[in-house]
User: Which sequence fits this backbone?
């Protein structure tokens, strides 16, 4: 069972993040490669480190500058977080709950190096493990960014400098692999904007565990209390959550909501684990007005343009008909004159 979860985590990270992420390999003109250290648990395309409490280990990355001129690079750590699309991403900010370690807690410094044209260089980021050993993982990425000063552009007097970045996932353990113990909780339900900036019911989910929760299936139903026929639903599959992170699972109604009391019923499932949530909440007019005003207004429906085209065609047909009738009348007058 232990080996099964250990390999599942490795395959998840490899499938999810794969090779280093690049903005554009051709335009970036550089590449990065992980350099293994003694703390690497086994060969992988990401850093998979076992570090004893309070011990220091090194994350070493090789940066290869393929450009024809020297370039400046910044190297730092980013944290594994969950965005509101239900995807694990990397961020310099942390959304971890209080007391839960994030990767930037192990080293928050930024290193800057200048590498000559067509040369490579190893850069070392030391990390210090938390003082207490805990099961699970600390998830993040080693982030390398190149400052491109050769392709600058100027817009209205402001200089725009292009940046290209690549990342390698980082998994840090303070204990050997163990069976994951997940703790998913529904924190609160509010009215807000979904990822498309449309008014939506947002259910904030917390992964209060030190494990990646994936794949996660979420089925949600929202009823207006006293009107069981008014129901809003959302179904999501293949969601994922970083350790000790949260995100808003949305339910987006097609029509503007009315003030009142509502009930949310949600079922979340990952593997054999199932969570059921049932929560009442209230939506007031102030929240509806705020979200409606802040929402992106949908474009005018194509139907309005269709009616304009139809009207133009009808007008054209009327004109052609009148021209035809006038031609027939003139033809008849000419025949009578003869």
Assistant:
């Amino acid at each position: 069972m232990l080996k099964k979860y250990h390999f599942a985590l490795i395959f998840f990270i490899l499938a999810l993040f794969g090779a280093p992420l690049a903005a554009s390999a051709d335009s970036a003109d550089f590449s990065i490669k992980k350099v293994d250290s003694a703390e690497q648990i086994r060969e992988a395309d990401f850093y998979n480190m076992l570090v004893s409490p309070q011990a220091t280990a090194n994350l070493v990355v090789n940066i290869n500058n393929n450009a024809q001129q020297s370039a400046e690079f910044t190297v730092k750590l980013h944290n594994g977080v969950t965005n509101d699309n239900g995807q694990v991403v990397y961020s310099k900010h942390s959304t971890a709950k209080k007391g839960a370690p994030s990767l930037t807690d192990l080293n928050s410094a930024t290193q800057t190096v200048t590498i000559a044209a067509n040369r490579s260089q190893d850069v070392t980021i030391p990390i210090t493990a938390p003082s207490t050993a805990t099961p699970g993982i600390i998830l993040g990425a080693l982030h390398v960014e190149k400052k491109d000063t050769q392709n600058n552009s100027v817009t209205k007097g402001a200089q725009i400098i292009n940046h290209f970045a690549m990342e390698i996932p980082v998994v840090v353990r303070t204990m050997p692999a163990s069976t994951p113990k997940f703790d998913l909780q529904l924190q609160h339900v509010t009215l807000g904007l979904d990822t498309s900036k449309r008014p939506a019911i947002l259910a904030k989910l917390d992964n209060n565990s030190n494990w990646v929760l994936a794949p996660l299936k979420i089925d949600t139903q929202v009823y207006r209390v006293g009107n069981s026929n008014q129901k809003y639903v959302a179904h999501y599959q293949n969601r994922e959550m970083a350790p000790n992170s949260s995100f808003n699972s949305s339910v987006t109604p097609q029509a503007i909501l009315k003030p009142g009391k509502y009930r949310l019923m949600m079922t979340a499932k990952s593997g054999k684990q199932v969570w059921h949530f049932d929560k009442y909440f209230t939506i007031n007019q102030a929240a509806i007005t705020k979200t409606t005003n802040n929402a992106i207004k949908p474009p005018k429906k194509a139907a309005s343009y269709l009616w304009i085209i139809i009207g133009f065609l009808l007008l054209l047909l009327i004109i052609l008909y009148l021209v035809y009738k006038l031609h027939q009348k003139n033809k008849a007058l000419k025949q009578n004159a003869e």
User: Anything to note?
Assistant: The helical segments are 2-17, 25-28, 103-106, 285-294, 302-337.
